[in-house]
Design brief:
mainly alpha; globular
Length: 316
């Protein structure tokens, strides 16, 4: 009786029966794995390196060792461009699918007010984590950053960080799909209300995106770290990493603003009348993104079962 009551109290479970949720879940995991298996990092990373960074500040591999010549001021420009260049890397593309879910709110607040709160909640952890990592980089100095920039270290760092992030996203996605009711039913009503709020979800996503920088192996970012570490100043490291963090979410926030500005009322109506649909979008984005991370950075590396496009000779 309790199980039936819980099911019918949840509009999401009413509109998406177990079989449909299972098919959607398996389907999006399959898509995430396929994208990870055929991901051409040379093409995507090259766009950030050659087009965004190359067309603005130049060859970042050469700029990495020019702190003595260019000074601390240029580091802020380098930080912004490195963040912007990382926008379309694998780790960031996953976050874009979360925009509709974060922009929606099923409460009685206005869409724009909710959007501003969500943006603040999303941005704050990105800035805080970036600053903390910048302090770490400043303490490491040039020699320390050179050590963690070595290929085996940076790949191991990326594998660990993104595999954990992927696992968290899968767990979160399964909760959104209603598969972990035994876990969520133990939470108090106040706790459930807190974690279901759009600002809380935005804050959690901001934490994940902020951690992207900790694991990111992207060459432009690593070259920026080498530049910043030359100052050997935790304060400077924190400052430029904050700018980098804002740079990496600039396009994300721009799209968020445009979506709310031009379609805010429609999204409010959509979320109010059919709240189960934006929840499904959020759940699938988390599940697909988590599957991508776990496969690409975990399973594929451990068992050498990825890089299908390269193995088939499709990519140069």
């Amino acid at each position: 009786m309790n199980k039936q009551t819980n099911t019918y109290n949840d509009p999401f479970l009413e509109h998406y029966k177990a079989s449909k949720r299972l098919l959607w879940g398996i389907g999006i995991i399959f898509v995430g794995v396929m994208i990870a298996g055929f991901w051409n990092f040379h093409l995507v990373d090259g766009f950030g390196r050659d087009f965004i960074a190359g067309k603005t500040i130049g060859d970042t591999s050469l700029l990495a060792g020019t702190y003595g010549e260019r000074g601390g001021g240029f580091g802020f420009v380098f930080a912004a461009i490195a963040g912007l260049a990382a926008t379309f890397t694998a780790c960031k593309c996953v976050a874009f699918a979360m925009i509709p879910g974060l922009a929606c709110s099923s409460d009685k607040q206005t869409t724009r007010r909710t959007a501003i709160q969500a943006i603040i909640a999303f941005t704050a952890p990105v800035v805080i984590i970036g600053a903390a990592y910048g302090i770490f980089v400043g303490f490491l100095g040039s020699e320390g950053v050179a050590a963690i920039n070595e290929r085996p270290v940076r790949l191991a760092q990326a594998q660990a960080v993104f595999s954990i992030i992927g696992a968290v996203m899968i767990f979160w996605g399964l909760i959104e799909l209603g598969y972990l009711k035994r876990f969520t039913n133990r939470l108090t009503p106040l706790t459930k209300e807190f974690f279901s709020a759009s600002t809380t979800k935005a804050g959690l996503m901001g934490m994940l995106v902020g951690l992207f920088a900790v694991g990111r192996p992207f060459p432009v970012f690593r070259e920026f770290l080498a530049y910043a570490a030359t100052a050997e100043s935790p304060t400077y490291g924190a400052a430029v990493m904050v700018i980098h963090g804002l740079g990496q979410i600039a396009v994300f926030l721009g799209l968020f603003f445009l979506l709310v500005w031009f379609a805010g009322n429609r999204m409010m109506t959509w979320a109010s009348e059919k709240p189960w649909q934006p929840r499904m979008v959020t759940a699938l984005a988390l599940l697909g993104g988590g599957a991508y991370f776990v496969f690409y950075w975990g399973i594929a590396f451990i068992y050498d079962v990825g890089r299908w496009g390269f193995k088939l000779g499709w990519y140069g």
